[in-house]
Amino acid sequence: MKYGLALLTGIVGIAGQVHAQDIKREEVEEITVYGTREDGYRATVAPQVNKTDTPLQEIPFSVQVVTRELIEDRGIATLGEALRYTPGLSPQVGFGASNDRLTIRGSTVPFNYKNGFRRSGFSANDQLANIEQIEILKGPASALYGRAEAGGVVNIVTKQPLSEAYANVSAEYGDFDALRLTADLNAPLSDAVSARLNLSYDDRESFRDLVYSREYFVAPVVQWRPSDRTTLTVEGEYADREAFADRGFGNNPVFLEAPLERQFGNQDARQDRNGGLLTAVIEHSFSDALSGRVAASYSEVELDGLFYNYGFPPVSGAGGPDPLVNVRPTDSTDKQTNFTTQAELYAQLRIGAVDHKLLLGVEYGEDTWEYLYLGGQTVQLDFDNPVFPTPTAQGSFTLSFGGDNNTESWAVYIQDEISFGDFRLLVGGRYDQSDNDGFDSVFGPNPRAIREESKFSPRVGLTWTPVQQVSLYASWSNSFVPQTFAGVLRGGGLPKALEGESYEAGAKLSFLDGRVRPTISLFDIERTGVAVSDPDDFNFVIQIGETQTRGIEVEVPAAITERWRLIANYTYLDAEVTRDSSLPEGTRLVNVPDLSASLWTSYDIGGSFEGLSAGVGVVYIGERAGNSFGSIELPDYTRVDANLAYSFEVGGKPLEAQLNVLNVFDEFYYDSGGGFIPLYPGAPRTVTLRVSYSFGAGQ
């Protein structure tokens, strides 16, 4: 830790010694960061995920942004649903169906980022109540973020205080007794201080037998501006969730015949989760051309649960007329913490006829995971009528496994965006030093395993803009991910780091005065050392020798008129094992469809129906592998969503009522599969009605 603190002190000291007169201000057009209704689903910048305010059209990588406008038009409340209309992403249901994970370009991404900080993979559901937009940087992001998967990173941008008083309250009720209440409250406390508070309460049953969840969420943020050059922002979140621990369906083809509501866990299954985060950011402008940022973030989450794990094998007599499902009650406790501190300098200067936009940063981080799992006696259930003995046949619990994993890391990174004529050259890299250790009381290693790893991760990209409406780009980048938290190998010990390399080329276009902004990208990603579930025992992992993902993505966000908005996507992926001693060459990667496509469009009707708007969306997901060794194939599906909203004034303030229908035609489908993550069916037709009321000058 002393090295990280020394670097942070040094970089702040350097900032104070830089003279403003040595750097010329770059003349740039003023940029609006977040959208309006007229902007629709388009975004011109993603300032956090790329760490600069460079327009997306000039960045030589594919970046998608889920705007607040799209989230509100679709009327959804979970991270997985918010990202469902994003190219190259596949939903991945998290542990116990308690949160959302993602697969991006063939890479499972267990960690997301919030305001640029890595967050716990065991975190409570990311509530959308305080989310402004979601930024997705495709391809390896290790040159900026260090321990990042080759497929990309997802960064959640939260709402910040406004300069004027504002409030919005909403209530939503729908199928499966789903009740959701939210409040967004903003108040300037003085000329220099403003605050914002987001609250939500979520209580719902499920289409799955026995499943329920209740969650409280609070997210305050305070911003202090002691001068026009300095801002201090302190932000927090806390969530408390009680739910049924749903393990979905087991990893065997026989479960594909089960109705979606069938439950193989007992009624005492539970999952109690609480945690939060605290972030502080100081931003200072030393001059018009030089600015700096120092930030720190700490997050913590604790999980206490009782769930029913599937056995090995999950089914006895799977080929016969009366299969029996093997489940074992498991009592678990988990605690995960993440601490990150960063310091960054941003400078703009001109050398001759060449403009430079420089980024220099250092980072120090500590991640920990402590766990203890106790197992009871295995119970065999009739597949067609899974009735547990009464009382529950748990018997005496014995130690299944327990231990901890820890990572201490520090890094230094640099990036230069060089502009000359019609070209933009991006050159950057990051050096990471990661000290990892782990211990498991049952599976080993004993004594504690220690793995020290270091890696320099570069990225290079070139953008050519021959005319204002067309930008062509090509890039190359590497990724580096220590797999401390991926699990342990059968022989005990930690898997080695996962490394990736990506080549990407594409075009970013602008038509109809910027109202239509397509992005087309082609990419080739190779990864070595991927840790996947052991096909003989999911308590362990094996490392695949090499995987390759090649594909093409097309995204078209558009505001056709002031009233008509749409976003359309298409993805083709060829993701497979290319070299391994355990899995055959050509084995498809888990939960990665060859083809996927989506379209969402909404229209404000106007005229005699002023205030009325309608939206409709279609999502197609192709066939996918349901586990890492290819014995299950999840079928393709097409899901249709729709909504109808009406906005009018009550007491001079806007009131909006919105009817949302997910899965209009009640399509049966599976949301995800995997080894550690069992099969999860998607929700049937779900209807909800939301009413929201806004007041205040910021409305």
Overview in brief:
The chain has 699 residues and is mainly beta. Helices cover 4% and strands 58% of the residues.
Draw up the topology in text.
Layout: H1 2-17, E1 63-66, H2 68-74, H3 79-82, E2 89-93, E3 100-104, E4 107-109, E5 113-114, E6 117-118, E7 131-138, H4 142-145, E8 152-158, E9 166-174, E10 178-188, E11 193-205, E12 212-227, E13 230-243, E14 270-285, E15 290-316, E16 324-351, E17 354-375, E18 379-382, E19 398-420, E20 423-440, E21 449-467, E22 470-481, E23 498-509, E24 519-534, E25 537-559, E26 564-579, E27 595-606, E28 609-621, E29 624-625, E30 633-634, E31 637-650, E32 653-662, E33 670-672, E34 680-681, E35 686-695
Parallel strand pairs: 5-8
Antiparallel strand pairs: 1-7, 2-3, 3-4, 5-6, 7-8, 9-10, 9-35, 10-11, 11-12, 12-13, 13-14, 14-15, 15-16, 16-17, 16-18, 17-19, 19-20, 20-21, 21-22, 22-23, 23-24, 24-25, 25-26, 26-27, 27-28, 28-31, 29-30, 31-32, 32-35, 33-34
User: Describe the biggest sheet?
Assistant: 22 strands, antiparallel, barrel
Distance between the termini: 45 Å
Round the mean pLDDT to the nearest integer and report it.
87
Poorly predicted ranges (pLDDT <50, ≥5 residues)?
1-35
Specify the overall morphology.
globular
